[in-house]
């Protein structure tokens, strides 16, 4: 993959602290959590995003599942598994995107204990 010189940024609504739930029809939804807005630049790698999530939200970014939506179908949560998916998020969202972060319960519990 060639390095990009694009200066495109996406305003991302990061949904954090909730959980992914699969309904009886097999559709994945995100329940709970809070929303924070951050900007990310095109060309970022998934591993870099995981590090940023760790810094921004005090979570183990490597232990989290990350999903995102596309502007033409925001009901479908797409797995952010590799850099190709990161490129898709920028290609199919013009100015903003929703990014959903689901971490193991131990990460969330540890963060809540630190906040007390």
Automatic annotation (TrEMBL):
Domain PB1: 25-94
Record-linked Pfam families: PB1
InterPro entries hit by this protein: PB1_dom (IPR000270)
Name by which UniProt lists this protein: PB1 domain-containing protein
């Amino acid at each position: 993959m060639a390095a990009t010189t694009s200066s495109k940024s996406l305003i991302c609504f990061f949904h954090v602290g909730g959980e992914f739930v699969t309904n009886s029809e097999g559709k994945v939804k995100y329940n709970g959590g809070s929303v924070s807005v951050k900007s990310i630049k095109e060309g970022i790698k998934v591993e870099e995003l995981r590090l940023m999530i760790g810094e921004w939200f005090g979570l183990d970014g490597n232990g989290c599942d990350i999903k995102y939506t596309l502007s033409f179908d925001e009901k479908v949560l797409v797995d952010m598994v590799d850099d190709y998916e990161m490129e898709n998020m920028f290609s199919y969202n013009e100015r903003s995107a929703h990014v959903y972060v689901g971490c193991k319960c131990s990460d969330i519990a540890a963060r809540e204990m630190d906040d007390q």
